[in-house]
Amino acid sequence: MADEQPTSAEDRREPADDPKASATESANQEAPKSRESDGEIPRAEEPQPEQPAAFASARSGPAGEEVRDVTSRERGRINRRELLKLVPLIAIGAFAIPKLQEPLLMDGVGLSDWASGKLFGRHREAQTFSNNDVVPFDRFPYNYYDVVDPEVDLGRWTLTVEGLVKRPGEYKLQQVQVFPKVVQNTRHVCVEGWDVVGNFGGTRASDFLRSVGADLTARYLEVECADEYYESIDMATVLHPQTLFCYEMYGQPLDRGHGAPLRLQMPTKLGYKQAKYLNTIRVTNVLKGGKRGYWEDQGYSWYGGL
């Protein structure tokens, strides 16, 4: 048997590359295949995630601060806030117009009266004081609008009772004094800026009105005085337990300068509401035109509460 011939190095070489095949392979590597030519639909590019609205509207100011768009709701809040800031300026500007001054003042006083009436407590009493706090009688000021003494004939004086009452007529001082006397140390406050603690005695207005059959659901009590002063008071204050038809001060009958023989004493009201020299009272639901009160008809607060 013939011996096997050894394989030469040349015979062991890899076969040479086919030039045509190499050219085709290079072309395939350089140019990607077109899927459309193969009948495939190219896949759409994936959408990029949207940025949040706040981020999208954020900008930077000159100092690097964040600047963002204001929503319509926020803009509405800002407008209301800015309008409220302008209200005081608008009011001041309105007061500068002469024709608007008086109506604005009257509206303000009316609002004050309404609020005072709502806050009034029929059973909430004004502060009372010890005898040591009472000023001496000679230091209690005389205060009047016209004359200190209208020269009332004390011997013939009567109180005229009118309006929504079952028993109208003329009542003598003794008929007012038959009810339990109430003595109280309370503060008298004058709108002029002074106040004193005094001692007062008299009949509760509520006791006397019940005795004459007054309609206690009526709205007002009107009073007229010997010195031509006049007033009107809300019924809730008239029925307050500290409201007196006052006929004494410091344990003595009223003197002429302080309103003899009968005056109103109401520690829940300013002094100008506490009419002196009473000669007529009227229970009513409708105030007389132009006769709400002497000072009130000149611009003072009608309620006059403390």
Can you offer a commentary on this structure?
Strand 9 (244-249) and strand 10 (252-253) form a beta hairpin. The protein has helices spanning 9-12, 19-30, 53-57, 72-95, 98-119, 173-176, 205-211, 235-238; strands at residues 59-60, 66-67, 159-163, 169-171, 181-189, 195-204, 220-225, 230-234, 244-249, 252-253, 263-265, 278-284. Helix content is 27%, strand content 20%. The strands form three sheets. Strands 4-3-12-7-8 form a five-stranded mixed β-sheet. Strands 5, 6, 9, 10 and 11 form a five-stranded antiparallel β-sheet that branches. A two-stranded antiparallel ribbon has the order 1-2. It has 306 residues and is an alpha+beta fold.
Highest-level CATH class of the largest domain = Alpha Beta
Runs in which pLDDT lies below 50 for 5 or more consecutive residues are 1-17, 31-37, 53-57
Largest sheet: 5 strands, mixed
Give the overall silhouette. elongated
Share of helical residues: 25-40%
Overall mean pLDDT score? Answer: 79
Distinctive features:
alpha+beta; Sulfite Oxidase, Chain A, domain 2; 5-stranded mixed β-sheet; 2 domains; 5-stranded antiparallel β-sheet; about 300 residues; elongated
Task: Give a brief description.
The chain is about 25% helix and about 20% strand.
What is this structure's SSE topology?
Layout: H1 9-12, H2 19-30, H3 53-57, E1 59-60, E2 66-67, H4 72-95, H5 98-119, E3 159-163, E4 169-171, H6 173-176, E5 181-189, E6 195-204, H7 205-211, E7 220-225, E8 230-234, H8 235-238, E9 244-249, E10 252-253, E11 263-265, E12 278-284
